[in-house]
Amino acid sequence: MSAQRLSCRELVDLLTAYLDGALDAGDRERFERHLSRCDGCSEYVQQMRKTITLVGALREDDIAVPVRESLLDAFRDWKTRPRP
Amino acid sequence: MRLTRYSPAMVDLPVAASDEATLAALRAGDEAAFEAMVSRYGAALLRLARVYCPDAAAAEEAVGDAWLAFLESLDRFEGRSSLKTWLYGILINCARARARRESRSLPLSSVLHDEPAGDDGLAGRFLPRWVPAVGGHWIRPLARWDEEPEQLLLRAELRARIKDAIEQLPEHQRLVITLRDVEGLPADEVCNLLGLSDTNQRVLLHRARLRVRRAVEQHLMEAAV
């Protein structure tokens, strides 16, 4: 990427890499400089952070899965078997 | 691509302390430890299996297969990954095998680039590149999302909408967003699990997140009417 300023479109394309800490120092600096001055991109980044939090909350929807007796039988069987 | 930022996942740690304790208990034949593990990861395994096996019964069978294979593999576990990632890897193999028997599975590499990017809601939102000085900038500011995630989560329809958006994703995007953002696995572990390059993993995650953000945006727009 050139030393030029990032456009909003480019910032949007780089967001996942940015959040993963995968941008090199130059790109990260351009990214952060743009972000600090652009309300549109700040809102976009906020929205994406909220989206990620919302997706993570799906984990809490989990209902406990009952442990099947057959699985425990398999475990008992496994532990009595001679192993190297 | 250079990794410039510190992330705990990048540090080459030995087996996590809790993994070590679990492992020792399992190897010693501690039934309670096994039962705790099954309850703890059961739902996550089922959710992952559903990516490959839409049929609920087949997905459950894949999970059963995975637990048996996990036991068989315990003595080979060397702690190169977390126990959780090891378990997910086994599940993925078992679910793929089940799906293959139902002949609906596709090899990962062949379809990666054919997966549609889908509606990311960004078309027409930017000024064309050739516009001097402001090319590529937002045409209009985005409608703000004023609520915090905690408030947003109280909207039951929004939760359903997000779940639905993830279910509608092409298989590999769905898999990556499930592992990264639902299960919270670090990027490098997801790459190892799925045999993806760093870049491909990120492209899939990026596309998936764009579509889920779009689904949230659509819900908020409709709710505001």
What does this 3D model show about the protein?
The complex is a heterodimer of chains A (84) and B (225). Chain A has helices at 8-19, 25-37, 39-56, 69-80. With 84 residues, chain A is an all-alpha fold. Chain A has one domain (8-80): Arc Repressor Mutant, subunit A (Orthogonal Bundle), CATH 1.10.10. Chain A is elongated, with a radius of gyration of 24 Å. Chain A starts with 7 loop residues before the first helix and ends with a helix. The relative contact order of chain A is 0.10. Chain B starts with 16 loop residues before the first helix and ends with a helix. Chain B is elongated and about 65 Å long.
Low-confidence stretches of chain B: 1-14
Q: Fraction of residues of chain B in helices?
A: 55-70%
Query: Which structural class do you get from the secondary structure elements of chain B?
Result: mainly alpha
Q: Compute the gyration radius of chain A: what is it?
A: 24 Å
Over the alpha carbons, how many angstroms does the gyration radius of chain B reach?
20 Å
Q: Please, what is the oligomeric state?
A: heterodimer
Strand content of chain B: under 5%
Span from first to last CA of chain B? Answer: 44 Å
The CATH superfamily of the largest domain in chain B is: Winged helix-like DNA-binding domain superfamily/Winged helix DNA-binding domain
Q: Using the alpha-carbon principal axes, give the shape of chain A.
A: elongated
- Count interface residues per chain for the largest interface: A-B, 53 and 59 residues
CATH topology of the largest domain in chain B: Arc Repressor Mutant, subunit A
> What is the CATH C-level name of chain A?
Mainly Alpha
E-strand count of chain A: 0
CATH 2nd-level architecture of the largest domain in chain B: Orthogonal Bundle
Helix segment tally of chain A: 4
Helical segment tally of chain B? 10
Main sheet summary of chain B? none
SSE class of chain A: mainly alpha
CATH hierarchy: architecture of chain A: Orthogonal Bundle
